Fold this sequence. Notes:
about 150 residues, mainly beta, four-stranded antiparallel β-sheet, about 10% helix
Amino acid sequence: MSHNSIGEHQFHMLNNPTGRNGPPEFLRHQRETFQRPGTNGTGVRNLGIKAPPFQMVSGLDMTSLNSGVIQHALYVGETGTGPRNIVWRGITYEGFGDGYIVLDVEVLDLSPVRNTVGGQLGSGAKVWLSCLWTLQPVKLTETKNLGEVIT
């Protein structure tokens, strides 16, 4: 098992794009506060268990530019399909009952690596592929095939 993966795709790096290197979002109770004119105090309203879409950056070394383009096409093929498991630094989020639907995958960097000493996941690395993933957390018990969420 890889220390970092989205579904079947393994990565050397999987991080929050803000540079905080934080974990993926997960489902949790959402609340909002509200106030009414002419009334003292603040109210709190429970909105339910949910999470907004979020982004993660993946990094993987490749053997050629062509293999990087093909790999990105495989990532794009995951968009809109059923929920995927995320493994971040060896922690599997499927164990929390959360799955992730891939909404979009963009290439951030596909460039030759000038100096290498073997690959991170395999030998012969000559190219670095970095992608920005947009993911939607969903509860695994509330999903059907092809990523449809039961309402």
